[in-house]
Amino acid sequence: MSMALADRGLHPARAAAGAGRGSLESFFTGLAPDWHSRWAWDHYEATILALAHQFGLARLCEIGGGRDPLFSRQEAQRYGLDLVVNDIDAGELALAPKGLRTARFDIAGDLSEPDIARGSYDMMVSRMVFEHVDDVERAWRNIHALLAPGGIGLAFVPTLWAPVFALNHVLPEKASRAIVHALFPARRDGGGDPKFPAFYDWCRGSRSRLAPMLNRAGFSDIHVQPFWGHGYFERMPGLRQVDDLFNRLAARTGWEFVTTYAYVVVRKER
User: Fold this and answer.
1) Structure pTM?
2) Is the dihedral of CA 188, 196, 256, 206 positive or negative?
3) How far apart are CA 179 and CA 194, in angstroms?
4) Phi then psi for 168, rounded to 5 degrees?
5) DSSP three-state, residue 256
6) Where are the beta strands (DSSP E) in 75-164?
7) CATH class of 2-159+201-231+258-267
8) Dist. CA 225–CA 44, nearest whole Å
9) Is 13 exposed, middle or buried (0-12, 13-18, 19+ CB in 10 A)?
10) Per-residue pLDDT tens for 195-234?
11) Alpha-carbon span 131 to 52, nearest angstrom
């Protein structure tokens, strides 16, 4: 696994050096993420592998992985991960790559589905899922119930009040869908990355804002890694430069009210 992490731009020795007391906060200090969301996208899988390596985690559940899970069966085996792909939608799970184990349940539901296995996962991760969940606090309570002692949850989320997501939040879904379909044809209905309604419940990039809710869900070891910037205006000269300057200044001053993305990471006590 060490070679895999080095290949992906994260060296486990560096993560371990920053881990110190073993807290999530010190772990991310060791990783030293960049402020721009490009880092978040480019290093998401590597961050999961680094966490798994540092904290000795193997049983991984990807929430909302559906048709597009992070790892193939071969990759999961190579990295020593026992991977289960979750989704609320049986149709999405039917599109998952062959050979992967799947579990159909609602992460914000009552955990009564037959695929539920409480306390059985070492890691539960999600990417661009929680903005579509209308009761995120319940989702985090359920993650606490599904994690084994010492297990880690990681949600990679778009955040309010980044202007681009604030607009998506306040616009009627029909208008928001039309804009996204125009900018990103692959996200049209029937494409490989369909758009789902977004609620942005508890999707924030501020630890002080999220910690009370995550404490109620049962977590005390918490880290929120904020990121700024996005690629939505790449084909819009002028607006792209203005937006980039805005995000650079926000990152430099640590203005968490307008983060664009965040890693929300929690660890269940042993």
Assistant:
1) 0.88
2) negative
3) 13
4) -60, -35
5) helix
6) 82-87, 101-104, 121-127, 147-158
7) alpha beta
8) 12
9) exposed
10) 578 999 999 999 999 999 999 999 999 999 999 999 989 9
11) 25
